[in-house]
Amino acid sequence: MAHPASQEGDSAIIVDLSEAAMHMYTAAIEALPFQEDKKFHTRAEVVLSGMRKLRSALTDAASTSRPSSAVIVELSNVRSRYDKLVEHAAAAPGSSLGQQIYATRMQAKLTAREVENGAGLRIGLLDELEAGAIPTDDEAAKIKDTITALGGVPGTEHLQPYQPEPAPTSEPDESHVNGWDDQLVGENAAT
After folding, report:
1. What is the rounded distance in angstroms from the CA atom of residue 90 to the CA atom of residue 98?
2. Rounded to the nearest 5 degrees, what angle is found at the Cα of 19, between the Cα atoms of 17 and 21?
3. Strand, coil or helix: 131
4. Long-range CB contacts for residues 115-124, cutoff 8 Å, separation at least 24
5. How do the domains of the chain map onto residue ranges?
6. Res 155: pLDDT
7. Which residues of the chain have pLDDT under 70?
8. How far apart, in Å, are the Cα atoms of 7 and each of 11, 14, 18, 77, 191?
9. What is the pTM of this model?
């Protein structure tokens, strides 16, 4: 009869498998076409889908009663790489609303539940959108308003139309330049 593997052994196997998967995902990420390429989003979504599954498995492993710092370190690494890829995809032309709100809320340091509550969205919607679901028109409007309120999708600042500073409407009063008031200076000089 075989003896059960030690907790440390289980964690080492989980981490090794995750590292192997991330090696392949990293190669796939590096091989992605430019953001403007029409194949970019299709290929990026394949990688993101696989990384979501890996992230979920590591989250489950980290939630077990078998504590392991190696598993939580690997989970942190996977989440960080996932977040960077979503932010890259969200800044690309033709990105999904799910990618845009995910990147925006990560930048704002908000959880999906906090955004759903604050925007008046049903619980679970943002997770569904991240996985590729399509929002209703009402949901999409609320999400777009939330993205705007949180400062926009990170990495798209260069895409915003240029708006020059408004020209001054009248000549500025220069009697107080550098804190000097000519009338007060004249009064003090006379005394």
Report:
1. 8
2. 70
3. coil
4. 115/146, 118/146, 119/143, 119/145, 119/146
5. 9-159
6. 85
7. 1-8, 67, 158-191
8. 6, 11, 17, 21, 89
9. 0.73
